[in-house]
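Hey L., structure's done. Input below.
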Amino acid sequence: MTNILDDKLQTLRSQIDEIVKDLHDLTVQIHHDELARTVSDLRNRINEPFMFVIVGEVKAGKSSFVNALLSTGKEICRVAPQPMTDTIQQVIWGEKEEVITINPYLKKITQPVEILKEIAIVDTPGTNTIVEHHQEITERFIPASDLIVFVFEAKNPYRQSAWEFFDFINTEWRRKVVFVLQQKDLMNSEDLAVNEKGVFDHAVKKGIHEPHVFAVSAKQEIEGNESESGFLPLRHFIKENITGGKAPILKLQNNISTSRNLNERIAKGVADRRKQWELDVAFRKDVAQNLEKQESKSLRQVDMLVENLIAGYDRITQAKEQELNDGLSFFTLLRRSIAGIFTKKANAQQWLEGLAKDLDQELHLELQKKLNENVADLADSIQQMAKLIDLKIQSSQTVLRNNHEIFSDIAERRANVLQELQDTFHRFLNRPENFTADHLFPDKRTPTTSIATGSGLAVVGVILAAVTKLAVFDITGGILTTIGVLFAGFTSSAKRKKIMDGFDKEILKGRYALQTELSGKLRTYVTDIKVKIDANFEGFDEMLAQEEGQIGRLGERQRGIGERLDVVEKAIA
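Output:
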């Protein structure tokens, strides 16, 4: 039966070792050196005995406590009036007594003591030591510990630094803890009882359910006064709860608990990272939707501008067409011809030339008025598109901050990408060349040179006014040139139909050109600005795509480790 249990324990230990190995790979993958070191320490100690870690303040009597607990009659951990524990001392079983220096802060002491076959004891410097690195190294032993023995001076177990260290143990790692009031021989029984009750109550307030508090005297134990030393209840607790074959199972359970703690920290970090990614995706979607909305608004402005131009164009040309039609009747032409012979009144040719001139002036005045009324609205709509996105960028929500426990590097990378987006967008807004339209009006000279010193958004209205006026007047000017040629050489009413047909044809041609060319180019201009604005998000979009893949892979690995821990935990139970 013993062999069967040993085989089962070895199988479970191997399974936990594989899980911890994968957990270590995960911590390396997320580039978290501290967690990787913690998991590495945990894996290195999986095959070690059940580990007691003795903690407490300087001169609380920790080393004396260890010597008394081992009851070898020797001073395994040095004791003196001044603080002696200047390194962490891990006391383990060995066939002979030996001290092995691992590094300047850690040494292993082997002892042929029977209890050390089931447990290992780690004696640490005081939690309030002034020696550099000692508390940091002590904290590294906590995740791999199986039981924390918190040693207080029996006379004063309420020091803040000791309980702050307890908070670290209890909050960060939820380790099993027993409380020891050392040097009880220096107190009377009444005061000792008060302090025992005080530690018990304080531990309960800190969230410990039924805390175990022992008052001991290492001095009395070493001197052979076992009945008064208080070590008998402590040894009974150890025997009932840890030794006697229980330690290997308890250690496996503690390994699972620590692994789960680390895995849950990563899970929380991944959840925070996913939440930030979801917020960023929502922000990016909001930007895209606002761009679409503002583009639609600007395109409606384009349609309104062109519609107003066409309405003015139709009103003027229809009036002139009626005037031309009336003026080209037989009797009107006859009167003009006769009047031209005997008076200084304009003849038919001169009248046609005047009509063409009036058409030119009225069209220019009407279209100029319509442009002045509508270009400003279009420019404002385009400017609002850019300004709105600028505000969106500045107000993007951040939950993954640079001090994040797990993913501070990812938070910093995101902050850098977002800052680069802000900087790039501000540069984009301030460059006039980003808002010119030379490619849309290659044969028109836009006033870029004269406004190069202005900001990009400030030039939108100037450029729109310039290019639209040039385009409109080129179109109408071309119409009038053709009509002028059509009127030239007019001699008789025989050409009346030809002139009317030609006039109608040119007016319709001009109307079509005005509507399609100007609408098409202005709509293209609006869409181009939107595309240019959106292009500023290239780096941000790349980050979102990378984050989506990485978060998915990390989440899958983390969940897999959690599921495997569940399986092993059930097998142990």
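The mean pLDDT is 85. Residues 149 and 166 are 11 Å apart (CA to CA).

-- N.
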